[in-house]
Automatic annotation (TrEMBL):
Residue ranges of domain Ribbon-helix-helix protein CopG in the record: 4-40
A Gene Ontology biological process term: regulation of DNA-templated transcription
Classification via InterPro entries: Arc_rbn_hlx_hlx, CopG, Ribbon_hlx_hlx
Protein name as it appears in the record: Ribbon-helix-helix CopG family protein
Natural source organism: Cecembia rubra
Domain of life: Bacteria
Gene3D superfamilies: Met repressor-like
Length: 80
């Protein structure tokens, strides 16, 4: 495990200390948990952005529509 040193605003340090005490959790574990959650949030935001962009791409929409037509045809064939 690596060690880092950073500077944070006093107000943030105070809030960190208060929450760590309330949760009975070491500050480094609280920071680790918060950072993991935030990085996961960024990853999800990237996915949302890419799906929104794909939703505007006519080539992607055409491929999806063709795939849906084939899927519906398969469903119809199976129900006969």
């Amino acid at each position: 495990m690596a060690t880092i040193t950073t500077s944070l605003p006093d107000e943030l340090i105070q809030k960190l200390s208060e929450h760590a005490k309330t949760l009975d959790m070491p500050k480094n574990k609280l920071i680790e948990t918060a950072l993991r959650l935030y990085l996961d949030h960024l990853k999800r935001a990237t996915y949302v952005k890419s799906y929104k962009a794909a939703g505007q791409d006519q080539d992607i929409l055409s491929i999806a529509e063709e795939g849906m037509e084939e899927y519906l045809k398969q469903l119809e064939d199976e129900t006969r």
